[in-house]
Structure formats: C-alpha cells, structure tokens
Automatic annotation (TrEMBL), chains A, B:
UniProt name for this protein: Phosphate-specific transport system accessory protein PhoU
Assembly: Homodimer.
Location of this chain's protein in the cell: Cytoplasm
Matching PANTHER family: PHOSPHATE-SPECIFIC TRANSPORT SYSTEM ACCESSORY PROTEIN PHOU
Keyword Ion transport included in the entry's annotation: no
Organism for this UniProt entry: Bosea vestrisii
Family that this chain belongs to: Belongs to the PhoU family.
Primary localization class, coarse: cytoplasm
InterPro entries, sorted: PhoU, PhoU-like_sf, PhoU_dom
Residue ranges of every copy of the PhoU domain listed in the record: 20-107, 125-209
Pfam families listed in its UniProt record: PhoU (PF01895)
Length: 240, 240
C-alpha cells in the first residue's frame, strides 16, 4: 500500500477504537447508574438511562458499518483484518451491555410503586453490580492497551460473578418464600441479577476477543462454567 | 470480475446460505425440544439439547469467518456486501436462539426434582413457545425466499408474543403468591418465558435484517414495544 493509503487506513482504525472507547464509557455509566436507580428507586435517573441507550445502539451500527466498509475497500491482511473483526465483536458486546443496563432501569421504574422488601435484598445485587462494573472497566482498559494478560485475568474472575449470582438467586427465593408481598419486587431483582450476570458474560466475550486480537488464536477452551452440567441439578440458577 | 471469479463468488454465498439454513433448522428443533423437555421433565432430552448447542456455535463462527474472508478477498459492491453482512447478522441471531433454548433445557434439568405446581402453570409457556416456533420458522422461510413482505408480517406479530409474555408473567406471580412451594419452579418458568420472549426478539431482528437485505434500507422506525415506557409502571414484565 502507498504511504497515503496506509495513513488513512490507520486513521480508520484509530476512529473505530475511539468510538469503542466512547461506547465502553457509556456502558459503564449505564450499568452504575441503573444500579443506583434501582436501589434508590430513582425513576428520573432510570428514564435518563433508558433514553441514553439509543446513542449506544447508533454508535454500534456505525462501528459495524465502518469496519465492514474498511474491510471491503482495503482488503486488509491477517493482522489488520483481526483488528477490524475484533472492533465489530466488541462493539456488539458493549451494545448488549447497554441493553441489559436499560432493562435494569426499566425494572427500576416498574417496581417504583411496589411493596418494599427488606433492604438486604438489594445489598447483594449492589455488591454484584460493583464487581461487574470493575470487570467491565478492566476489560475495556485491556482492550485500549491490547493487554492480553489483563484480559485473561478478567476472564478468569467471571467464575466469582457466577458464584455470587447463584447465591443471590437462592437468597432472593428465600425472601419470596418468607413473605408473598416480596414476590413481585424480588422477581424483578432476580431478573436484574441475571442481567448483571450476563453483563459479566459479555466482559468475558470481550476478553476472548482481545485474546484473539493479540494472539491470532481463538480460545477453544470453554469457560469452566459451560461444563458444569453435571452439577446443574443442584443449581437453582441454571447459568448460561 | 471474470466469469470464473463470479461463479466461485456465487458458490461462497450459496455455501453461507446453506449453513444458515442448517443453523435455522437446528435452532427450531432446539426450541421445540426444550419446551417438551420442560413440560415433560425429560432430563435426557434436555441433555441432548445442551450438547447440540456446541455445533450451532461452531457453525456461527464458520459463517462469520467465511463471510469476512469473502468480503476481504473479493471487495464486493453494495448488493453483495449486504448479502454478506446479513449472513453474519442472521447467523449471530440464530446462535443466540440456540443459547436461549439451551438455557431452557438447563432449567428443565434444574427443576426436575422440584415440587410440582399446577399443570396450568406450564400450559401458557407451551402456547407461547409454539407461537414463537412458528415465527422463527416463518422468518427463516422469508430469508430463504428473500421475501421482505413475509418478514414484515413476522415483525408485526411480535407484539402478540410480548402481550402473551406479560400476561404469563402475571399468571406465574399469582401461582407463587398462592403457594410458596411453587416459587422455585415458577421462577424457572418465568426465566423460560423470558427466554422465549427474547427468541421472539431475535426473530424480529432477523426480519429487520431481511428488510435491509432486500431494500437496502435500515429500519429506523423502532418496534412499537420499544416506546411503551409510558405504560411501563403498570407492566410487571419490563420488556426489552
């Protein structure tokens, strides 16, 4: 490629990475804010998150279109092709994180008039959400720095999130059994917890994409939790 | 392009469409079988579905890789580029359908030892699943025939699925309030219903991709349900 084309190609990649960084920041804020909206029953904040999601969807479409057009126009070779495919995949994962945070915000609105369960019912969710926020931040930093080792640390920590989800699931069922007036609220909390757990799964997807981007290899080893079918009978949560 | 290249290019597209047809058939069976496994508490059938999902994941990766390589090698123009992007998107949606069906199968295993709620608790889910199976079949047929009109019919019918989900959600909460022994089982049914509703969303995504493929335009009009935030307070289900 001529020098001019190479430079404009680098500018394309740079632009994609910038858009993804913007998307990542937005998705982190959406997850944090949706948890606050739920815990404080702040419907105004919840509505803000619901509206913000459209911008994230638009950015994802833009990243996808730009990356595909770059592939079609420039016929990139292995390394650069990987960079573009990774951008498409990571943007898709971040967009899903936004959807899940938006769903938590919608549930914050839905339960605003409901009977209030004991405060401890939301403490576990808050804790789990904070852990996942840290995972999301770390994996986005790992992407920005093309740091495969850091990405793999995030990937390995997802087990903790899954364990926390299973324990929270059991806890919420207990509150429901104790007092039927808790059922509606706690059901929404169960779905919120599932959303947070799935956001955790998207951070591991992003970690896997970083591994592919940096090493050129797909991770064929499955996440450990995908192989836990033997212990599933004991698990109320039915992960994955 | 020379005649030879055009023919080999057509063979690439043909191969992708064949893989997607295979994926579509698999995902339809997985949804149908997972519902049967849940209703009959057939853990052997459930395990079969859980194992089958790996094949679907592999096919999706293959479609994605082949489509991207075709884009990189052949620099397709507008129409053909759309065909390849659509293949990537539809394969991703079908793969998600498989994941959701697998999750239903896992829940069928998880509840196999649980207290049995009244049979009517599963009747609503069965009904909803049958409707979504028909939607999935119709949208895959629409893709095979590049029939945009048929795709739009599927897209419009998703409202029925959402309404059914909301009513099923309320019904299951009622069983939980009637008898605390129903709580664990019905919670799993709630998640299964949510999974079926989300499979419905993936069929509308596929319908939107067919619209884009045939007309060259993205659908900028949102699905009606995305704008129901005003009635959300009354909705326990917090769709979307």
């Amino acid at each position: 490629m001529s020098d001019h084309i190479v430079r404009s190609y680098d500018a394309d990649l740079e632009g994609l990475r910038r858009s993804i960084a913007e998307m990542g920041g937005m998705s982190e804020r959406m997850l944090g804010d949706s948890t606050v909206a739920l815990v404080r029953r702040d419907t105004a904040l919840a509505q803000k998150i619901i509206s913000a999601d459209q911008r994230l969807d638009n950015l994802q479409r833009e990243v996808e279109e730009k990356a595909v057009l770059t592939i079609a126009r420039r016929q990139p070779l292995a390394n650069d092709l990987r960079e573009l495919i990774s951008a498409i995949r990571i943007a898709a994962d971040i967009e899903r994180v936004g959807d899940l945070a938006k769903n938590i915000a919608k549930r914050a609105v839905a339960i605003s008039g409901q009977f209030s369960p004991p405060h401890r019912a939301v403490v576990g969710l808050e804790h789990m959400s904070r852990l996942v926020q840290a995972q999301l931040k770390d994996v986005l930093d790992a992407y920005a720095a093309s740091n495969e080792q850091k990405a793999m640390e995030v990937w390995r920590r997802d087990d903790e999130i899954d364990a926390l989800y299973t324990s929270l699931f059991r806890e919420l069922l207990t509150y429901m059994m104790e007092d039927p007036r808790n059922i509606t609220f706690c059901t929404h909390l169960l779905f919120c917890a599932k959303n947070v757990e799935r956001i955790g799964d998207h951070t591991t997807n992003i970690a896997e994409t970083i591994h592919y981007l940096v090493t050129g290899q797909s991770m064929d080893e499955n996440r450990p939790k995908l192989d836990t079918t033997n212990i599933l009978v004991d698990l109320p949560a039915a992960n994955g």
